[in-house]
């Protein structure tokens, strides 16, 4: 890996090997992916998985990432926002039922 890669790439790849697993996601109708987080996850593991996933989605030509986090996973919000990149449209969704 050259040192000219993005910070996102440098933090995820070491010696050409990706770190972390891809987040579970489904394709949407607009060329993006929807990540529907349901299982608890440590914020460090989420950070690695999100960076790895975003690199893969970018390679696949995806244009946007929608992340759904239930209130029980609020600990991941700050991490999700930190990974924001201009390479992909990025949105964090919450749903409140009244």
Automatic annotation (TrEMBL):
Keywords: Hydrolase
Pfam family, one: Nudix_hydro
Protein name: Pre-nudix hydrolase domain-containing protein
Family indicated by similarity: Belongs to the Nudix hydrolase family.
Domain Pre-nudix hydrolase: 23-82
Xref: InterPro entries: Nudix_hydrolase6-like, Pre-Nudix
Phylogenetic placement of the source organism: Eukaryota, Viridiplantae, Streptophyta, Embryophyta, Tracheophyta
GO MF annotation terms: ADP-ribose diphosphatase activity; NAD binding; NADH pyrophosphatase activity
């Amino acid at each position: 890996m050259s040192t000219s890669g993005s910070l996102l790439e440098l933090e995820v790849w070491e010696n050409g090997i990706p770190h972390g697993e891809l987040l579970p996601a489904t394709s949407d109708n607009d060329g993006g992916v929807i990540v529907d987080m349901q299982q608890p996850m440590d914020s460090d593991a989420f950070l690695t998985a999100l960076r790895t996933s975003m690199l893969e989605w970018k390679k696949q030509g995806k244009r946007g990432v929608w992340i759904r986090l239930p209130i029980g996973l609020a600990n991941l919000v700050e991490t999700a926002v930190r990974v924001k990149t201009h390479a992909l449209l990025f949105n964090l969704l919450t749903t409140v039922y009244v």
